[in-house]
Specification:
Elements lengths: L1 H7 L2 H8 L16 H12 L19 H6 L7 H13 L2 H17 L10 E13 L8 E4 L4 E13 L4 E8 L4 H15 L3 E7 L7 H9 L3 E3 L20 E5 L5 E13 L7 E8 L7 E5 L3 E6 L5 H17 L8 E6 L5 H7 L34 H16 L6
Parallel strand pairs: 1-5, 5-6, 11-12
Antiparallel strand pairs: 1-3, 2-3, 3-4, 7-8, 8-9, 10-11
C-alpha cells in the first residue's frame, strides 16, 4: 500500500530526480550508477521501517525477503553498500535537495495550483517548533525538551502545516534556536522551493508573541494569529476599542462556558524607541476552572473545584481570599464571593475525566478537565517551584479570577 501510494503520487519520481548525481571523490554507488540502481537504494532507505529496521546498521543481520520485494530485487542491499550511498548523498547537499523536493511534492499533493493561474496561491499555515533530544558524546547545543521538561542536547525542528493539518515542510536547526528565528527561515525556504504558493496567514503559539518579530512579519504583508502572554497586559483597561462579548464555547446543556470580544492593544517596540505596534485581539478573559455558581439575592458565590494537590489548594484559597478582600461587585450590584469547594471523592476522580458531574441541583455541571496553574503539579508528578514562580502563578490566577466579576 505504501509503495503503491508513493508511486501513484509521484513521490518516488520526484525524490529520485532530486538526488545528486556527482560526488567528491567520484565513486559508486552515487557516481556512474544507473537511475534504476539509485531508485532501488532510495526505496531501501524509505522502507527500512516497513520491515522493522531502525537504521542501516540493522541490514547486517537482515535475511528476510520483504525489503527485496519492495525494492524490486532478488535480495536486499547490504549494510556497506547502502551506508555508502547514504553518506555520499549527505556529503553532496542531498538533505537540502530532498527537503525542497518534499516541499514541492506536499504542495502539489494537497494544494494543486491551476496551470492557467499566474499568481501564487495564498496559504494559511500553522508553524510550531519541536525539540528532539540527541544522546551523543559530542557537545551539541542544548535546549528545553518540552516532553521531558529537561534541558538536553537536542535538535530543533520547525514544522509547517496547512490549515487542514497536512505537513508541508520540516526543517532542522540547532537545539538552542528560538522559534522566532527559525520561522522566517522556514517560510523563506518554503516559498523559494514552491513558487506557486505564498504563506499569507501564520498561526503560531505564544513563542511568536514578540513585538519586533510581529512587526517584521507585518512589514512583509503577512497576518499572524497568536496568543497574548500574561505579562503583556494587566486587565481589561490594557485594551482599547473593546467590543461586545459573544459566546464562544458551550457545554452539553447549552450553558456558556467561555466568551470572547474583539479588542485592540498597543505594544512598545524595544528596538525602535517611541514606536508602538498596534494589534487586534480576540479577548478571552476567562480562566476556566471547574466549579459551580450559587446565585443569591445579594451575592453570587463561585465555588471553585479543588485540585488534587494540597499546595495548589492552599495557593488557590489564598488567591480567593485576596479577591474577596477587594469585594468585587457585579453589574447588577450583587457582590462576588470566591471560595474553594470540599475535597474530591476518590470514587469520582476517575469519572470526572470521562463525563461532567453535577454537584447539586443548583449549579451547572463541572467541567470535564481541570485546568492547572502553569508551574503546578498533579498526582505523583511534582515540580519544585521557586517563590518568584509561585508569586507569578498567584498573580496570574488572581487577575483571571477578577475578570470574572465583569462577566458572571
Amino acid at each position: 500500500m505504501l509503495l503503491a501510494a508513493a508511486s501513484e503520487t509521484m513521490l518516488i519520481t520526484q525524490l529520485c530526480e532530486a538526488l545528486p548525481t556527482e560526488c567528491t571523490p567520484a565513486r559508486p554507488p552515487l557516481t556512474g550508477s544507473s537511475a534504476t540502481l539509485r531508485q532501488r537504494l532510495l526505496l531501501t532507505l524509505l522502507f527500512l521501517g516497513a520491515v522493522g529496521l531502525q537504521r542501516t546498521w540493522d541490514l547486517r543481520g537482515y535475511t528476510a525477503d520483504g525489503l527485496a520485494l519492495l525494492t524490486g530485487r532478488p535480495r536486499a542491499y547490504g549494510y556497506r553498500f547502502t551506508e555508502a550511498f547514504l553518506s555520499q548523498v549527505a556529503h553532496s547537499d542531498g538533505a537540502e535537495r530532498l527537503t525542497e523536493a518534499l516541499a514541492r511534492w506536499t504542495t502539489q499533493l494537497w494544494h494543486a495550483q491551476d496551470e492557467m493561474s499566474e499568481q501564487p496561491g495564498s496559504l494559511t499555515c500553522y508553524i510550531d517548533g519541536h525539540r528532539k533530544p540527541v544522546y551523543t558524546d559530542t557537545r551539541i547545543p542544548r535546549g528545553l525538551v518540552g516532553r521531558l521538561s529537561t534541558i538536553l542536547g537536542c535538535r530543533a525542528l520547525v514544522l509547517l502545516h496547512d490549515e487542514q493539518g497536512h505537513p508541508l515542510l520540516v526543517t532542522t536547526y540547532r537545539g538552542d534556536q528560538h522559534l522566532t528565528i527559525g520561522l522566517p527561515l522556514l517560510i523563506a525556504q518554503y516559498e523559494q522551493s514552491v513558487e506557486t504558493a505564498r504563506v499569507s496567514w501564520i498561526i503560531v503559539d505564544r513563542e511568536g508573541m514578540a513585538t519586533e518579530f510581529l512587526a517584521s512579519l507585518h512589514e512583509a504583508s503577512r497576518s499572524v494569529v497568536t496568543i497574548l502572554r500574561t505579562d503583556q497586559y494587566q486587565d481589561l483597561a490594557s485594551f482599547s476599542q473593546l467590543g461586545e462579548f459573544v459566546p464562544l464555547l458551550t457545554d452539553f446543556q447549552g450553558q456558556i462556558v467561555r466568551e470572547v470580544a474583539p479588542a485592540s492593544i498597543t505594544l512598545p517596540r524595544p528596538d525602535h524607541p517611541g514606536e508602538v505596534l498596534s494589534l487586534r485581539q480576540r479577548l478571552a478573559p476567562f480562566f476556566r476552572l471547574p466549579g459551580r455558581v450559587i446565585r443569591e439575592p445579594a451575592t453570587v458565590q463561585v465555588e471553585l473545584r479543588p485540585f488534587n494537590d494540597r499546595q495548589l489548594n492552599r495557593d488557590l484559597a489564598e488567591v480567593c481570599a485576596r479577591v474577596n478582600q477587594r469585594q468585587p461587585a457585579l453589574p447588577d450590584g450583587r457582590r462576588l464571593v470566591l471560595s474553594v469547594g470540599g475535597p474530591i471523592p476518590w470514587d469520582q476522580r476517575h469519572i470526572d475525566s470521562k463525563r461532567a458531574i453535577k454537584r447539586d441541583d443548583e449549579g451547572p455541571p463541572c467541567s470535564n478537565t481541570p485546568t492547572f496553574p502553569r508551574h503546578g503539579s498533579c498526582g505523583t508528578l511534582s515540580v519544585r517551584r521557586t517563590s518568584e514562580e509561585e508569586q507569578h502563578d498567584e498573580t496570574a490566577l488572581e487577575r483571571n479570577l477578577l475578570s470574572l466579576s465583569g462577566r458572571v
